[in-house]
Design a protein that fits this description.
hpI Integrase, Chain A; 14 helices; 8 strands; elongated; Integrase-like_cat_sf; DNA-binding; DNA integration; CB; Site-specific integrase
Length: about 350
């Protein structure tokens, strides 16, 4: 029999044209409805295998596979945030039914909540990435809607001067001041500083390392320690067996505290986040003449484009060319002066 009961629920059982055995619950205790479900399911398998039609895949199917395949991403929690917002709008849809009009409606709805174009674009990037993989890699769908990102204003690089940094460090509690000193000496991201362990530090060789699963790009990072970084680390010795940076004997988890915000306010530094310490480190390097390709390796950026954001801060190599124009202009000026003297 193609239909049989388990408890009160009807189940369907049949063999597909390629010999695959299917056994599936119809989800109903009504025999007529169960028969209809069986007939549709059997016809669907026949169309897929005999006519070459692709089975209908849902947005939910794609999301689950996407999350499984991108579990290595350091920023997956950001993807999940956007996917949760999208679920009420796309959760019940098949991939083939997602159109450009629906994408536009999502954009309108998201913007009505007062978020920036950058936030909308991060959401659109997740949708586009999932649909592209469903089409190109998984071959679940033949085509996808064109998704165009919204324009974003180019943000300036926020950094502070050495004088401002010194004032901030002086005003912070000692444990945060030490972490700021270390961040400005190494350029490490916030999580890499707060989670740094003694097993990742070699003071004799003056090097630290970030394991691949701790790095944003999922590649291990070797961190050279300058004199300032070494001094900071030596002052932390003996405070904790495992973690480097602690407060009252416990590892520091959060740095965006009232103490941090109040110190910024007291010294008059506005619009400055902890991550801007990394921007400051990079800006100081460029101003000091560090070549961009060296800075890229020091900061573990994947592309040189990420480093070019700081290029305008260090154009000393162009000074000689700019000065040469003065020398060219000086020639006719001298000639004119001599001519005026003869008159």
């Amino acid at each position: 029999m193609s239909l049989f009961k388990r408890g009160n629920i009807w189940w369907t059982r049949f063999t597909t044209p390629n010999g695959e055995r299917i056994r599936e619950s119809t989800g109903t205790d009504d025999r007529k409805q169960a028969q209809e479900y069986h007939d549709r399911l059997k016809a669907k398998y026949w169309e897929v295998q005999k006519l070459g039609e692709k089975p209908e895949r849902s947005w939910q199917d794609a999301v689950l596979r996407w999350l499984d395949e991108t579990s290595h991403k350091a920023s997956q929690h950001d993807d999940i945030h956007h996917l949760r917002w999208l679920d009420p709008y796309l959760g019940t849809l098949s991939l083939n039914s997602i159109t450009r009009d629906q994408i536009d409606q999502l954009i309108t709805q998201r913007k009505s909540e007062g978020v920036s174009n950058a936030t909308v674009n991060r959401m659109l990037a997740v949708i586009r990435a999932i649909l592209r993989r469903a089409s190109l890699d998984w071959e679940w769908i033949d085509k996808i809607p064109r998704i165009k990102l919204l324009p974003e204003p180019k943000r300036r690089i926020r950094w502070i001067t050495r004088e401002e940094a010194a004032a901030l460090i002086k005003d912070l509690p000692e444990h945060l001041a030490e972490m700021v000193r270390f961040s400005l000496a190494t350029g490490l991201r916030q999580a890499n500083v707060t989670h740094l362990e003694w097993s990742q530090v070699d003071l004799e060789r003056r090097v630290a390392w970030i394991h691949a699963d701790q790095a944003k790009a999922r590649k291990a990072i070797s961190v050279p320690l300058n004199a300032e970084a070494v001094l900071v680390l030596r002052r932390q010795l003996g405070k904790h067996q495992t973690r480097v940076f602690t407060y009252h004997g416990k590892p520091v988890i959060d740095v965006n505290t009232k103490a941090w915000r109040h110190a910024l306010k007291r010294v008059g530094i506005e619009d400055f986040r902890w991550h801007d310490l990394r921007h400051t480190w990079a800006s100081w390097h460029v101003q000091n003449g560090t070549p961009l390709h060296v800075l890229q390796e020091l900061g573990a950026w994947e592309s040189v484009e990420m480093v070019r954001r700081y290029a305008h801060l260090g154009q000393n190599h162009l000074a000689s060319y700019a000065e040469s124009l003065c020398q060219l202009q000086a020639v006719p000026d001298t000639i004119l002066a001599q001519q005026a003297g003869r008159q």
